[in-house]
Write a structure and sequence with these properties.
- The complex is a heterodimer of chains A (281) and B (544).
- By secondary structure, chain A is α/β, with parallel strands linked by helices.
- Chain A has two domains: 150 residues, Rossmann fold; 123 residues, Hypothetical Protein Tm841, Chain: A,domain 3.
- In chain A, helix 3 packs across helix 4, helix 5 runs antiparallel to helix 6 and helix 8 runs parallel beside helix 9.
- Chain A is globular and about 60 Å long.
- Chain B is an alpha+beta fold and 544 residues long.
- Chain B has 21 helices and 18 strands.
- Chain B starts with 5 loop residues before the first strand and ends with a strand.
- The chains are: A alpha/beta (281), B alpha+beta (544).
- At the A-B interface, strand 10 of A face helix 15, helix 18 and strand 17 of B.
Chain lengths: 281, 544
């Protein structure tokens, strides 16, 4: 029986892919005041960003309760006896803890492994897609956990922000704290390091930012998969995706929207690029 | 002082001090010889400050030193105190002189000629691209004349006379060798400065006490006719350095106004308040003892406080917040203007070196900043053409790894700073930052300090002028007019944003108006208006 792959909604994997590869997605929760929504189940991305800018309440995000994971483990244990759960970084969310607690409470006859990806967004997404492809091809749980760790090392996510204020307000600014308070309007570029947001550099304008993202991708010699996602700017996303066709075959380019949960911290205008380097032969 | 066949170390020390005092009289005139009629022409002041640093160093050595020891002290003082390009070259000249005088107890005509030759060699070595028609030529020709004179008559005074005469001729000739001097209507400032120093030394050697005290140095006219008249530049009061001295004076029948006028000449930032029986005095001075002595001559002195302001500056650097990137590289920027300093600090610069009145920090100032930052890898952004050389001197004076990104304007410095990659190593960052500075254009708006004819432009004193990346490009009726003239000459197809940094003498409302007027013509450009508070340049504009 094939190993079943589970991840959370912050992986930004689009429904067509999750269906094709049999990936189960557990959604996080975003609330405005007393209104709660499950990520891309009861709120769409567009609705979210509209509310983000207009709603007087600042959104709060919550990890899925352990119960949600137990439900998933129960369901999946009917089809398999090995489950691999890959979550976003523990430094950015309590989702990993939820999944582990669920594993401890789970009483089924199924082996469950939970891995902290130290990633977010399509950084997590491309990782899960790669592992799911191997699972469909018949790899066992031990092989898949090894593959996960190996792939984590080859994954590089950088993100362009129009502003850091959402990140700072949401307490996720991590090591990029020093970038706050610039008296000049600059656009920060961050990456993910050891599971948290870290400063990379700054650019003077959005156009320069898009250029930086492209050049970053182009700096890698061998690319397995490329992902580009946006919060509120689909045209910029399209443009970059098209430019990337010069670097990798179109089939290896993934596009998505940044989940509302991440959007809470990224803010409108944010873009994230993930480069998954090819494994050495 | 006497007509001498040789001088010893003590006399060399005196001679150098006399030459410095002599030079001081015309430092402002030398400043006015700046090729560009812009307010930060500062060769004279920079050379003077460098000389003063040398004099201070010679006072530090023990009694009865030999000539070699004094020459070394002069070189060391100049090395640390060098400001601006002219200061750095001067420090190399003294270095060569000291090498030529190695182990010498005294200086004779022969050893002087040898030392001048070494000085000339060192000066040329200091420049990656030596240019004739500058202080280099003057040094060389003075040395050549000295050597030639030794064959005829090796008496010290006659050798010095030959050197001085050759220097004078050389300075007069500089416009012939360097076309930009001819166009600007001036002789080379550094060359004139060196001539004056030699002139002062000669007066000392000849025992001409009266000359030194009462006369002024000779400002050399060019050999070829030049059109514009030289105008004097007003030099702002210096930034305080030395000792912050305060005390309460008690007694009777005080006249605070009289006390104030007496103390005005003894330092800067003077405050005198009080009445007939109690006066509070505050002053920044190099000679606190002198000021206190004046106080005790008038009454009794209480609550005396003397603080070394150089130390205070150090403490400030040390208490700075640490915002060190993972790569452990710190940046030091040279900035003038409180607004601009805040901008650089907010962008993560670890330390800022202020230039002082000439906007050029000394080697020591930069070295202190480098040593103060909590990192062993330091990048320096000079942000001024006249500071690049000084910054490069620092590399060999510290154990830390120092790289100078040769930024020549504030916008270049900001562009370089933004391009800093928090994860990359020193080598990669050097490349990134150097590439970034090349991508920005700088426009500076200021007032001409004298009339000039330059590059086909006719400029009147006090007229508003505009420079593009350091080249004088336009004059006009007002700032917006000049900016639009210069912008019209640029290819703005790839430009995205222009930033206006307005100076200390400019009001925000005016800057906003200028910004609006540019956006009218170029609506595709984004605008940002920032308070820079910089001196001299009413507007610094970056195009990115």
């Amino acid at each position: 029986m094939a190993v079943k792959i589970v991840t959370d909604s912050l992986s930004d994997i689009t429904p067509d892919i999750s269906e094709r590869l049999g990936i189960t997605i557990v959604p996080l929760i975003v609330s405005f005041g007393h209104e709660s929504f499950t990520d891309r189940v009861t709120i769409t991305t567009d609705e979210f960003y509209h509310k983000l800018v207009s709603n007087p309440n600042w959104p709060i995000t919550t990890q899925p309760p352990p119960g949600d994971f137990i439900k998933v483990y129960d369901e999946l244990s009917k089809e398999t006896d090995e489950i691999l759960v890959i979550t976003l970084s523990t430094k950015l969310s309590g989702t990993y803890q939820s999944a582990v607690q669920a594993k401890n409470m789970f009483e089924g006859n199924c082996r469950v492994e939970v891995i902290d990806s130290l990633e977010v967004a399509l950084g997590l997404g491309l990782l899960v897609i790669t592992v799911a492809e191997a699972a469909q091809a018949g790899a066992n749980l031990d092989e898949l956990t090894a593959l996960t760790r190996n792939t984590m090392n080859r994954s590089h996510l950088i993100a362009y922000f129009d502003t850091l204020k959402y990140l700072a307000k949401g307490g996720r600014i991590g090591k990029a704290q020093g970038m706050m308070g610039s008296l000049l309007s600059v656009k920060p570029i961050l990456n993910v390091k050891d599971g948290e947001m870290s400063p990379l550099t700054r650019v003077r304008s959005r156009a320069a930012g898009m250029e930086y993202l492209y050049n970053f991708a182009a700096s890698f010699a061998k690319i397995d998969k490329l992902a580009i996602e946006h919060a509120t700017t689909p045209e910029d996303n399209m443009k970059l995706a098209q430019r990337f066709e010069a670097l990798v075959p179109k089939a290896n380019i993934y596009q998505s929207t940044i989940s509302p949960v991440v959007g809470t911290y990224a803010g409108p205008g944010a873009m994230a690029l993930t480069v998954l380097e090819a494994a050495p032969d | 002082m006497k007509e001498a066949d040789s001088i010893n170390g003590e006399e060399l020390r005196e001679m150098f001090a006399a030459a410095t005092d002599w030079f001081e009289k015309s430092a402002q005139d030398v400043d006015a010889l700046n090729v560009f009629p812009v307010p930060d022409g500062d060769t004279g002041t920079n050379m003077l400050l460098t000389m003063r640093s040398s004099v201070d160093e010679t006072c530090n050595i023990s009694n009865a030193p030999n000539a070699s020891a004094v020459a070394k002290a002069i070189a060391k003082g100049a090395l640390m105190g060098a400001r601006g390009n002219s200061g750095v070259i001067l420090s190399q000249i003294w270095r060569g002189l000291a090498e030529g005088l190695e182990d010498n107890e005294t200086i004779t005509g022969t050893t002087l000629a040898k030392a001048l030759t070494k000085a000339s060699e060192r000066a040329y070595k200091a420049m990656s691209k030596p240019v004739e028609g500058t202080i280099l030529t003057v040094t060389r020709e003075a040395a050549e004349a000295a050597l030639a004179q030794v064959e005829i008559n090796n008496n010290l005074v006659s050798v010095m006379e030959a050197a001085v005469a050759a220097a004078k001729e050389s300075v007069a000739n500089t416009p012939t060798l360097l076309p930009v001097l001819k166009e600007a209507g001036v002789v080379d400032a550094g060359g004139q400065g060196l001539y004056t120093i030699f002139e002062g030394a000669l007066h000392y050697l000849k025992g001409e006490v009266e000359q030194l005290q009462l006369r002024r140095p000779w400002m050399i006219a060019s050999n070829i006719p030049l059109t514009p008249k030289l105008a004097q530049m007003v030099v702002d009061s210096e930034e305080p350095y030395g000792y912050c001295t305060e005390f309460l004076l008690k007694g009777e029948k005080f006249n605070p106004d009289k006390i104030r006028s007496k103390l005005e000449k003894k330092g800067q930032s003077l405050i005198v308040v009080g009445d007939a029986s109690a006066v509070r005095v505050h002053i920044h001075t190099l000679d606190p003892g002198n000021v206190i002595r004046y106080g005790t001559s008038l009454g009794t002195v209480h609550q005396v406080s003397i603080r070394n302001m150089d130390e205070q500056h150090q403490d400030y650097l040390e208490t700075q917040k640490e915002r060190m990137p993972a790569s452990g590289i710190a940046t030091v920027a040279v900035v003038s203007g409180d607004g601009l300093s805040e901008v650089f600090t907010s962008l993560g610069v670890a330390a800022i070196a202020h230039g002082g009145q000439t906007m050029n920090p000394s080697t020591r100032d930069l070295l202190q900043a480098v040593e103060a930052v909590p990192s062993n890898k330091v990048i320096i952004l000079p942000n001024n053409k006249n500071v690049v050389l000084t910054a490069q001197q620092v590399e060999s004076l510290t154990q830390k790894q120092v790289v100078v990104i040769p930024t020549e304007t504030i916008p270049q410095g900001i562009a370089a700073l933004l391009a800093f990659d928090y994860e990359a190593d020193l080598e990669t960052n050097t490349r990134l930052m150097t590439d970034a500075k090349a991508a920005v254009k700088t426009i500076e708006i200021t007032r001409a300090v004298r009339s000039a004819q330059l590059d086909g432009l006719s400029i009147k004193k006090n007229q508003t002028i505009g420079l593009l990346d350091g080249d004088l490009l336009a004059t006009g009726s007002d700032t917006a007019d000049i900016l639009n003239k210069i912008l019209a000459k640029l290819n703005l197809s790839k430009a995205e944003i222009f930033t206006i940094y307005y100076g200390a003498d400019t009001k925000q409302a005016e800057a906003e108006q200028v910004s609006a007027s540019i956006r009218e013509r170029y609506p595709q450009l984004e605008a940002e208006v920032v308070r820079g508070g910089q001196p001299y340049y009413n507007y610094i504009v970056s195009i990115e």
